[in-house]
Each structure stands twice: as C-alpha cells, then as structure tokens.
Amino acid sequence: MTLSLEPASHKRLLRNFVVILHAIIELIVILVGRFPAFDASASAVLGLESNWAKAFLRWDVFHFAHIAQDDYVYEYEYAFLPGTPYIMRHGSYLLKHFGLITDDDFTRSLIVGAVASTIISVDAVYTLYDLTLVYFPQKFHLALLVSLLSLFSSSPATLRFAPCSESFFAYLSYKGMLYAARGKLALASAIFTLAGVFRSNATMLVIYILWPFVVEPILVDSHLWGKWKSLLKKIPYAITLSIPPLLPFIWHQYKGYQMFCQASSQTWEARRWCSNQIPLIYSFVQSEYWNVGPFRYWTLQQLPNFLIAGPVLLLLFNASIYHISFSLLPRFRILLGANYKRKANDNSDPILNPSLAPHAIHALALSNMLLVSAHTQIALRLVCALPFTYWAAARLFFLKRQNAFESSKLKPEDCTTTLSRAARWWVAWSILWGTISLVTWAVFLPPA
After folding, report:
1. CA-CA distance, 52 to 335, in Å (whole number)?
2. Start-to-end C-alpha separation, the chain
3. Which residue, of 63, 244, 256, 291, is most buried by count of CB atoms within 10 Å of its CB?
4. Are 309 and 380 in contact (CB under 8 A)?
C-alpha cells in the first residue's frame, strides 16, 4: 500500500517545489530587472515607462513576438519554427476577445506566451517522473530524484519564465518518449509531430519510433536474423510513423521557398540559396545570419561560451559513451556470436539500463552537433529536452569515484549508494549557474 501511494505523494511534493521555484525565479528576474538593462531593445519596443512585460522580451523572444504580430516577413526569421508565435498570436486574440487583458497586442502576446510556457513546464516535471518509472519500474525515489534535478535546469529563464520554444519542446518530447516507451508508437508519432512545430531538432526524435520497431527486436531475439520476413513487415509501418515528425520542418522549408524563390510571389530578386540543389532556407539562414557551421564557433573569443556549456556537455558525453560502450555494444557483440557474460553488478548503474539505448544515442548525437556545429552555449537550453540529462545527473549520486568524468576508467562496480563529490558539484553548479543565468537574463546580458 505504501508503494502505491508514493507516486501520488511524490507528485504533491514536486508540485510544491515547482510553485516555490517559479516564485523564486520571478522574484529574481523582477528584482534584478529594476537595474538598467545592458541592451535597451526592450525599452525601444515597449517604451521607456515601466512595463513588467519587458522582463519577457529578450533574445529569441523578439523574433517570436514579431512573427506572432506580423507573420514571417524577413528571411532570418525562418530560423524559428512557428509553434511559439502561433500560441502567442492566438492566445492574445482569445484574451482580447474576452477582454481579460487590455494591454496592446504585442504585450498581450508576451504575457500569453509566458503563461503558457510556465504551465506546460509544470506538467513536464510530472511527465519526466512517469517516464523514469517506465524505464525503472518501482524505483520511485529514483524518479523523484530525477524530477527534482530537472527543476534545477541549466536554463530556468527560457524553460520556466519566458515565452520561448524550449518549454513546449521539452514537454512534447517527454510526452512522446513516454508514449513510445509504453508501446503507443502512433500516439508518440503524433506528439513528436507537434514538437516539430516548435524546434527543428524534433527530426531527431524519430529514433524513439524506429528503435523499438527495427533495432530492439533484433537485440532482444538473436534468432531474429532468420525471421527477416517478420522484420521487413514492420519496417514500412515504422517508416510511416517516422514521416509525420519530419513534416513540420519540411513544410517550414516549403513556405520559405514559396516566399523567397517562386516567381509568382517575388517582390525582390531570388536569393542565392534558391538555386541550391536542395534549397533549404533553414540551413542558409543559420549559416548566413548566425554563422552556424562545422568548427566556425571554435575561436578564442568563444572560449567562455564553451566553458559555460562544459558541465552539461561533459555530463552527456560521459554518460552516453559509457552506456554505448558497456551496455549497447556488448549486446551487438552477443548478436554477432561473441561470448559476453553480463556481470551481476552491472545492474547497479542505472545508466546501463539496456532500454536507454536510443536516449544515449540521441544525447551523443545532439551533444556532438552542439559542440562542433552550433553556438555551443545553446546546449544549456537544448539539453533540457533530454531526459537522459537528468538520468545522467541522478547517476552521479551513485558514483563512488571522485572524478565521474573519467569514463574510460569507470567500471560498473564503482557504483555505490554513497553520495559522490560529483553529485555535490553538479547540484552546486546547477543552483549557482541557474541563479547567474536568471540575473543575466534580467539585465539582458549574454549568453543567449
């Protein structure tokens, strides 16, 4: 009876923590926001007089708000998917229709986006709790630990305060992963499609559909190589479910092509990317306006941004490589006929759970992309959508070694229930950086 009550009591505890955390976040931003901002863009848009909505207007929110007001006008705006502006625009219309908020449309859209972002981030914590229990049945306290760690995210302003895409994308990613883990792959595909309306990296979520259909059956049943007909029957359905999450990004590219390349809609000379073999406005905009590309960010001036993103990237590289090396690759070796005996104490490390394989691959792929081909500091925002981030962080609480980032030396038998120094460092860094990032957000300082 006690065990059956734990999820309910844990969620009540999480709800209380979430309420307190959101109050602290808003208090920090409002108090620090009283100081002069480093960038006066928000005042230029909303006016010099006091306007508490100015605290929402930072970085990407300028683009979301403009798209919400006037739709896509400029080429560079196609770096942003339409999900967040859509919510801001139509939520603002509803509030205006019912006379709930009398501010101007621009301010109203900011408020709507912020409120929606806050609400969605609350249920995301519960979803992560449920997802953890699917992979770790009856491990209620592990699920609670993971959920609590997610509250101390590396980007609290974008995840729990401002009208940004991160909260919506993280929530939908968690929901889709939860349905996929429960075997409801058609529903997972639909949720991932919604996630694709908010961020382009939703295309990576198809791994959670393809893996249980194609890869996992082979790894579970080594005799399935002889049952290729059964496997081939599943592949078309897997591909069918994998297509919808790609459609929002494809449609976004088509709308950009239609606006800037098709002769019937031209009011200016066609842009040079229109003549590319694959005319993608998204990749052009990222390269042209944000200088995104392999190793372009690897300059001495950007070293502080690499250092800021270092802790989360180190955590993900360590845990994902460790899982692949000690859990996934041995399964492939067994499939190919190699002799491998799984040690009894292999189960003591939660990150070695075989069912986490698609999460480890996803985390490794995204981390590599962020390190090599992106503005590396955005890792602080994007990793919040990876449950693997918080599973890896929870793992630190079970490590005995002082240095948890020496993955090549770490062995499963090094796990213990004693709180490790790495865990203490992670919690301290999460709280410290989370607070600093709120201060920099409030006064409009980097990183974005």
Report:
1. 60
2. 47
3. 256
4. yes
